[in-house]
Amino acid sequence: MTVTTTYLTGGGSGIGRACCQVLAREGARVVVTDINLQAAKHTLTLLPGGQQHVALAMNVRDRKSVEDALKSAQDQCGAPPSLLVNCAGVLIIAPLLETDDDTWHKIIDVNLTGIFLVTQAFTRSLLENGKHSKGAIVNIASMAGKTGYIYLSGYSASKGGVISLTKTCAAELASKAIRVNCVLPGAIDTPMAASVSEEMCESFKQLIPLGRFGRPEEVAEVVAFLLSERSSYMVGACVEVTGGYRM
Ligand SMILES: NC(=O)c1ccc[n+]([C@@H]2O[C@H](COP(=O)([O-])OP(=O)(O)OC[C@H]3O[C@@H](n4cnc5c(N)ncnc54)[C@H](O)[C@@H]3O)[C@@H](O)[C@H]2O)c1
Questions:
Q1: Phi, psi dihedral angles at 238 (to 5 degrees)
Q2: Which residue of the set 7, 149, 151, 155 is catalytic?
């Protein structure tokens, strides 16, 4: 049996960590990357089949870091990864009039440019592998990218960009046997969500028909499905995982 290698960004926490756990449970070899290497290494300790998985430091904003990490993954796994989850992200809450240039650029760099850089490097390495180039990519966007959200101008814009980048990559790469889709989580209980004020969380909860935040693994199960052949006819889809928020 061939073991599929899945490459994840932001695998040291929250949704990314849950994706690593679900994918490892399904038999994948997982390359956990994160800007926080300690956190990525901690994820490794939570995975079944520990020896075969790899943890790497990578800053998605930095092209050299992105290319070096991918090369290292390829060397350690003996072949380029064929599955990719772009999960690294940052949330910075700021009213429009108080958003300074540095804040704006940081959010766009990590959440949007990061996906561009990692997807480009991943796709190049996969295609260089010739006839074994079949692959799948899942980008983690957000419902904020579709609906916008108060005090999240940079974050919402970055995630809207992820949605359109997903569709464009999907259209370009389908003929090369690489399917690209994205997931739009609503509010999910992770360290990122914990940075939001109680007041904002409560007002958000009122808008969720299920009446609760989602669990990271509830997003991860959808990611695993989109990476698998079970979703072989899905291309450029944006799957909402929201408990019914703004359905
Ligand atoms: N939690 C939510 O409610 C929610 C909702 C919608 C979308 N999302 C998206 O899901 C993804 C994961 O979020 P989460 O809630 O698990 O957050 P999290 O903060 O728990 O995890 C984010 C991870 O990304 C890593 N990261 C940050 N900057 C990085 C960089 N420059 N390079 C590499 N790694 C970096 C962090 O170290 C962290 O491990 C993000 O893209 C986020 O925008 C989250």
A1: -120, 105
A2: 155
The residue that leads in pLDDT, 3 or 51, is: 51
Note the helical H segments in the chain. 14-25, 37-45, 63-77, 101-108, 114-128, 144-147, 153-173, 191-194, 198-205, 216-227
Give the domain ranges of the chain.
Answer: 5-241
Hey, what amino acid is at 70? Answer: L
CATH code for the structural domain at 5-241: 3.40.50.720
Atom of ligand 1 nearest to the CA of 65: 32
Catalytic status, residue 245: no
pLDDT of residue 122 exceeding 50: yes
Q: Which long-range contacts (CB under 8 A, 24 or more apart) does 41-50 make?
A: 42/12, 43/11, 43/12, 43/16, 43/17, 46/17, 46/20, 46/21, 47/20, 47/21, 48/24, 49/24
Asked whether 193 lines ligand 1 (CB < 6 A), one says yes
The model carries a pTM of 0.98
